[in-house]
Design goal:
By secondary structure, the chain is mainly β. The protein is built from 2 helices and 14 strands; from the N terminus they run βββαβββαββββββββ.
């Protein structure tokens, strides 16, 4: 846990969200922006069983040059989402944002359970259920609205965005030329499945402010498109 640090105010000692009240600094404590609760990394290499010294085609020189001696490696990551804090947009508590209010019995756990990726055919996706979004793009204030009563503290709920995964793959082959001279080839495929990831990217809090017309929208996440890299080395 740490001082409120997401939505573009990390490391700042002032701003619309710090401090709420000098009487209770604990109001400022929330998870850090990089608080990821569960992460699984799977990495390893596999010698493809073709070519000299391997199970198949070990005595065919041409086959060995073409399909022999390859090693495949991977780094695969599965993790839960990063936190995002909902903001109300008014500065009515010591000139700070007092947060939001939940209407009609709505709870934080209900909103959290809706945090996943929703595709609606637009150029963006939503990381929160569109039923909480009004027709003007803002939050539906009958469900999640800003606290706008002067001097009244609302709530700054922190929610965790959608989980995601990523897979990187490499192919490596070494060809001996002489005793102390080798030719090495490596190909790397970053995000090999070209799998898009989505999350609450909150530059300036724009997607987490209930008055924003882009509330809940996301156009990207922690990984980018597939990237192919090739490298050739002469080792001696």
């Amino acid at each position: 846990m740490g001082l409120l640090s997401q939505n573009a105010i990390q490391g700042m000692a002032t701003g619309a969200s710090l401090y709420y009240s000098n009487r209770n600094f604990r109001l400022n404590y929330t998870p850090s922006a990089f608080d990821i609760r569960h992460v699984v990394h799977i990495s390893g290499t596999y010698d493809i069983p073709f070519g000299r010294g391997r199970a198949f085609l070990s005595h065919n020189r041409i086959a060995d040059l073409v399909v022999g001696g390859w090693t495949m490696g991977t780094i695969t990551t599965f993790q839960t989402g990063t936190p995002v804090v909902l903001n109300g947009g008014y500065l009515t508590l010591n000139e700070k944002d007092p947060g939001v209010v939940f209407q009609n019995g709505l709870t934080v756990s209900e909103v959290q359970s809706s945090m996943r990726v929703y595709h609606t055919g637009n150029p963006w996706a939503y990381f929160i259920n569109p039923k909480y979004i009004a027709g003007n793009g803002q939050a539906d204030w009958t469900k999640i609205g800003p606290q706008n009563t002067a001097g009244q503290y609302g709530y700054h709920p922190y929610l965790y965005g959608p989980h995601w995964f990523n897979m990187d793959v490499s192919l490596n082959k070494t060809i001996p030329i002489r005793e102390r001279l080798r030719f090495a080839f490596q190909a790397e495929f970053l995000n090999v499945l070209n799998h898009p990831t989505w999350g609450p990217v909150t530059t300036g809090g724009s997607t987490a402010g209930v008055q924003s017309q882009t509330f809940g929208q996301t156009t990207g996440g922690p990984t980018g498109p597939r990237v192919l890299e090739f490298r050739v080395n002469i080792e001696f």
